[in-house]
Amino acid sequence: MAANVALDALLHEHRRFPPPPELSASANAQPEIYDEAAKDHLAFWEQMAERLDWAERWDHVLDWELPYAKWFVGGKLNAAVNCVDRHVAAGRGDMVAFHWVADAEHDRRDVTYADLHREVCKAANALTELGIQAGDRVAIYMPMIPETVVAMLACARIGAPHTVVFCGFSAEALRGRILDCNCRAVITVDGQFRRGSPAPVKPTVDDAVAACPDVRHVLVVRRTGDEVNWQDGRDHWWHDAVDPQPEEHEAQAFDAEHPLYIMYTSGTTAKPKGILHTTGGYLTHVSATHHYIFDLQPETDVYWCAADIGWVTGHSYIVYGPLANGATSLMYEGTPHPGDKDRWWKLIEEHKVTILYTAPTTIRTFMKWGAQELQRYDLSSLRVLGSVGEPINPEAWIWYHTYVGGGKAPVVDTWWQTETGGILITPLPGITEAKPGAAMRPFPGISADVVDDEGKPVPNGSGGFLVITQPWPGMLRGIWGDDQRYRHTYWSRFDGVYFAGDGAKKDEDGDLWLLGRVDDVMNVSGHRISTAEIEHALVGHPSVAEAAVVGATDAITGQAIVAFVTVRGHVADDDAGGERFVEDLRNHVATAIGPIAKPRQIMITPELPKTRSGKIMRRLLRDIAENRELGDVTTLLDPTITDMIRERMADRAEEHEG
Ligand code: WT7
User: Fold this and answer.
1) Considering only CA atoms, which residue is closest to atom 21 of ligand 1?
2) Is 103 in the pocket of ligand 1 (CB under 6 A)?
3) Which residues contact 414 (CB under 8 A, 6 or more apart)?
4) What's the pTM value of the predicted model, to 2 decimals?
5) pLDDT digits 0-9 by tens, 513-532
């Protein structure tokens, strides 16, 4: 089990942070909801569903035929109406939905709920005019700009499930996703800004779509103004197609189980899984969790989720949850980088951000840059801090609380997954205490446990596998086009419960600590990356014979990708140490998947350590990559191989230092 947190040391520390009195006094802090939800979790979720506007009320709460759930059966609603129209109708049209801030310092725009309503209606009309109908899939390949939200909500409004692909993925990766769910249209941009410089995006889409015969339309938002290739009939400028449309659009209500979106995520095989989310249960789950976990006060808070919309965190906690709750958010196009170390703190001071939600890897980056970067700024507006994506080490938790939160803002460590749709395990800031490094307890209405190899719950003070023991409204409804894989991945490891793929521990109080993945999935900077997918990309290179990829502990990114490869023939003699070849391989992975999947290190080795039956022993490679004593080597076919790889790694390290 990969333990990212030095757990035992922590458990001995026993540091606890009680909920601050200001937060306990908030109307959102209702301690009784734990008991109420425990008594009747279906009644609890019904109450949460009542926070939304339904065109038709459901007949009953849940149909559960393991592993298939239907929530709010018979209910009808429109997700976009819940995220936009109802706030305008309630007289809140002038409220800002997004303070959007571009990567470039001077570029910014406020988008109110009335603006959002107008733009979403126009975009929905444009999509309809292009022949997109309810049920058709639409791919969205866009950076962090308001049009991305408009595009998603326009799709939702007409019942066309979107699949947003993170704008850093390669053409090959984009094509795979478009083909897997057979998209009819793609919405994209001409280019995007990265650290102040324009970078082309449309050529990637052109490349991807060239082999996607069912994509009939490509809608292009002008962002950089750079020259692009154009295919008449297929390509349409957003401003030509959307701007002239009527500002009203009559939204149809869809079944609670109508597909809302598909989000691809990595698994233990080379092929990403299309995780399917539907409408009513999902929206109920993300809006309720967003309200309680961040103590959201829509009239006064400025909420900032610093994730990218291309991942599930952006879907649930930038778009659907906050908008369903009528929140005012900050939306920032850029990412932290060493050339601009205090940009975040300037943004928080200037916009008086009250709630910040980010990943431990980002916090560790700020820690490395030092607290002096933020001490020049007034961050006293911050009152709740969230963490997501990977286990947060206690040092990072305490730094976040102390320096960013001024020693007063509670940290909520929220555990969830693309598959869970929304947060499942978390403290509640005005109710529960917090322990640095612990996600604490299931959200009201959620039932989780930690079980041993046989599926038996472990006692307090022990570790095992995290399982979810009751269906929940935001849960995935399947893997697009692969029912067998859905059952196998999540519902076959233990009888009758959802297997999350994470290790976890219950401490002496029964509080939950998440320990990282127990499968061959890595977590790099809070992004889920599959070892098999990278191995597949590497062996696709003509000079690679075999490849094994492992995640090695990394102080900043949590885990880092380390690859071991054997080559066909030999690397050119003039390529000292294979440097150029290794760079070539790294670029090859970037082309196949995207720059985020580039290995930190690639070791060329004459052989890989294998068992007598020919299985690669990744466990030993992980030991080597982390420079540890090797574990049990008795099943190894040739024990000299691991020594040799280790020596080579040491040589390489010396060369780099020298
Ligand atoms: C995996 C899911 C959920 C949004 C971002 C990632 C890990 C996530 C935590 C946390 C420990 C965490 C798990 C999980 N993870 N949050 N608070 N503590 N681990 O979504 O890409 O679907 O990855 O991220 O290992 O299984 P994802």
Assistant:
1) 528
2) no
3) 293, 357, 386, 387, 388, 423, 425, 426, 439
4) 0.95
5) 999 999 989 999 999 999 99
